[in-house]
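Note on ligand handling. Small-molecule inputs were canonicalized before submission; formal charges were left as drawn, and no protonation-state enumeration was performed. Where a ligand contained multiple stereocentres, the stereochemistry in the source SMILES was retained. For magnesium ion, this procedure yielded the string shown in the input block below.
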Amino acid sequence: MNDHGEALRFVNPYSAPSKLRITDMRLADITDAPTKTTFIKIYTNQGICGFGEIRDGASRTYALMLKGRILGENPCNVDRLFQRIKQFGSHSRQAGGVSGIEVALWDLAGKAYGIPVYRMLGGKFRDRVPVYCDIPLNGFEPDGSVSADGVYDGKKIGGHIKERLCQNWAFYKIGGMEPLMYGKGYVGPGSFINDWDAARTRSDGLGKSADRLKYFEARNREYQYMNTEPSLTGIRLTEEALDALEEFTIEMRKVIGDKIQVAYDHVGRMGINDAIRMGRRLEKYNIAWMEDVFPWYRTDQYLRLSEATTTPLCTGEDIYLKENFEELLSSGAVDVIHPDVLTAGGILETKKIGDMAEAYGVPMAMHMVECPVGAMAAAHVGVATNNVMAIENCNHWVKWWNDIVIGKPETIFENGYITPSDLPGLGIVDFNDELLHEHADPRFPDIWSPTDEWDEEYSVDRHWC
Ligand SMILES: [Mg+2]
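Structure output:
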């Protein structure tokens, strides 16, 4: 059967889009994919369901609190519902509910009208999107899983990249470089990193069986360290740490040569002065970009760094809504913009961000740590937006990742590309519930269980009296 015939199997021939109404929303939570993820199902009065995803590590409550505000509505009015709920989202994971629901609404609209999402975004600029491949700095075990103990060895990481060259990835990105940097020393007032490590150890060690208040106190202490902005800590990198980074890069380049693009992510906590030192050290090794060196809202710091080094800069995965990208783009502070469809505000908002970046002459790479629902949402934006250079894949070592959903394409990443399906909506037929059960988050072991207690969640939300 061709794709068109296949598509008709999954369209409700009695679907009446103008009479479609949202009747329910339920969730399924999994872990280890490679992180915690929550899937959304939005049910309707015509038997079709829309699929969404709350991005890695976010709270499911961000979506549940919106349920009462979309019940009874026609999901095909995607933008109207998005404008209603967007006030309940914020940056990074706090955008998870709004963005995940927006994706599910597009899926429903596509299923109701019998067309793929990219058609509703204006059609294609390309048939498939190049994918760039994450290489964790702690390296891979022989079976492809990520090793627990650190390698931090440029020769070995170069080897991991070289092994994957035949898979035709667009380029590579190394993540988790903090231990490489901090392992070689830092200086600063107090001992922020030591204190943070100690807090984490205390929190891990206590476990939930320990004294309840002590457990929560330790966990919240760690939370406070985790949420402290790097430039406020006064940490300075030693010259030895920068030597270690340069040596790592030289060893990696010896293995893969000069023509393979490699980006550096999670480069460590630092202020503007050390970021300039680092950028300058990396210039002659032609890396693709340094990512999220500062929090994204520090536009002035990005601008100072970009004026001080020719190493390209990239940020955006934590930014919610198009308007929050504008200052970074208009100031010329970044070389690549990097939104995540499940943080930016969903499918249409991410396309708008791409269009705005194009107007400022900046390409868009798409951050993507998602499961297949988020990946397909990114793919539909990716083919329908002109300046998209690549979509990220940092799940390639999770062997069951492709099987989370049923439907085409059978292999989501193929020969270094991702291709959106021509099936209606996102092109995902259903979830593989058996697999979801197997990997269910122990805190929420019952998948797709009723959420009736959220139906009446409603309040006076307008910003004036
Ligand atoms: Mg990143």
